[in-house]
Amino acid sequence: MKKVNEKNREVRFGEKEEKLIRRIGRRYSISPDKVCSYLNKKEKVVGFGRGGSESMVLFLKSGRKKEIIIRKIVSKKLVTARWGDKGRGVMLPPTKKALSQIEYINNLPSEVRKYFPDICNIKKNTKKDGVVYDQSYVPGLEVSSFIAQYKPSPKLVAHLYREILLCLKENVFIHRKISRGNIKTLEVSYFNKIKERLSLAQKTAPKLFSEQLLDSDYIYINNKKYLNLSNVCEKIKNHRYCKVLEPSSFCLVVGDTNTENIKISNIDPLLEAMKTNTFNFKYSDIKLKFLDPRAIGFRTVGKNTVDDYMYDNKPLHNSLGNYDVIHNEYFDLFMNFKKNIPNIEIHHFENHPFKKSYCGVENFFGFIMEGGWNVNSKEALRQDPYWLIRFAFVMGTHFAAMSPFHFHKNEQGVLMDNYICQKRPISIYCEGVKWLNHALRMLNKELDTFYGVTVPCKFPD
């Protein structure tokens, strides 16, 4: 048995746990002693989270107790991007954002709380270790993990997505609903956020996110020419029909429904559906739980969070937006410049674990959106007649502002400023480019259909 003494605490662990703790240390570029400093006496590490660089997530057991405790540590030392301490809103630094997430969950309407884990043992020290807190363990599998492990058909994935969207519509969006009125949201919610996040990316990796990449009017992605990010944003912002992108109202949202943040507590109905090819399971059957809410909305934060419901379209990021392939780095990337124009090639691995399940999901897009959010009902079309264009636009803005969350350091704690080591944020950037170009083409009436759904072509003057 090994022993670590720190701050008058004694933590003992065996060979198997020692290997796990060292693995955690390498993942987060910190020492094993530092990992152990977050443990209390008699606590044992049994696993850790595999999320982004914003926090360290430990799975613990205490003494002879069987239940698992989730301990989340958010510290400046664990963050890769150079967030400023004074950032607000979408630039809220991770330590402060963690407090907002705690406040968000603890102030949810009682009927919504059951869809989130419980939080306890909150310790705050923003000058030193940031925020440390425990939350209840949610059994089961994250949606992305279920798909990677069991490789269901695209049809089952589509039914699963539909039930996730329906769960959000029936249980989350019904709360705190208010009219937008004449307030303009696009600059605050999207264009300014993209600008500030890309500035942060440039400060974090100035060679990779150079002016040559960001300021070029055009970009090649897999030999196809697109308007580059700043160029396409400017054209959308100044478009005569830009106002159709505004939501009609705000409501309570989760804000980060990436399917790595949605857990299936009961996978049995899904396994049965795979055996019988009968897809009649409901979200209540599979017992969904939402993890890591964004806790930031339009000019709101924490307990007051409200935003555009379209912000929660993120389950489709994972398949249609290739997020699962990108985040798990199942791809190769090559980057150079053609006559000063960025040229990026992205090639997914031939046999990545999501290929079977995601190839064909696009054919069910209309089914997912109609069954989940009832987008073509008279009431929905009255409230949001341009939902399809807004879907593409919001997808694009999500990806365009996401790069700072995907930088990572090597085992020595050094950020390597090149596309080979940082292929993930560059690929995320490219998804933003592609989706915003889709949205602009819709506004320009250059697309008749999108994933089999008719694109609106009559706009108010």
What CATH architecture label of the largest domain applies?
Answer: Alpha-Beta Complex
Task: Please outline the major beta sheet.
Answer: 5 strands, antiparallel
Count the strands? 20
Count of structural domains: 2
Mean pLDDT: 91
Oligomer: single chain
Main structural class: alpha+beta
Total number of helices: 17
What proportion of the residues form beta strands (DSSP E)? 15-25%
Rough shape? globular
Low-confidence stretches: 1-11
Q: Compute the gyration radius: what is it?
A: 22 Å
- Side by side, the strands of the main sheet go 3-4-5-7-6
What does this structure look like?
The chain has helices spanning 15-28, 32-36, 94-106, 110-113, 143-150, 154-171, 186-204, 211-214, 229-237, 268-276, 283-286, 323-327, 355-358, 365-373, 378-383, 387-400, 423-443; strands spanning 2-6, 9-13, 43-48, 56-62, 69-74, 119-125, 130-136, 141-142, 178-179, 218-221, 224-227, 249-250, 262-264, 288-290, 296-297, 300-301, 331-338, 341-348, 449-450, 453-454. It is α+β, with helices and mostly antiparallel strands and 461 residues long. The protein folds into 2 domains: 2-136, Phosphorylase Kinase, domain 1 (2-Layer Sandwich); 141-454, Alpha-Beta Complex (Aminoglycoside 3'-phosphotransferase, Chain: A, domain 2), CATH 3.90.1200. The strands form 7 sheets. Strands 3-4-5-7-6 form a 5-stranded antiparallel beta sheet, with helices on both faces. A 4-stranded mixed beta sheet has the order 11-10-18-17. Strands 8-13-14 form a 3-stranded antiparallel beta sheet. The longest helix has 21 residues, at 423-443. 41% of the residues are buried. Mean pLDDT is 91; it is low at 1-11.
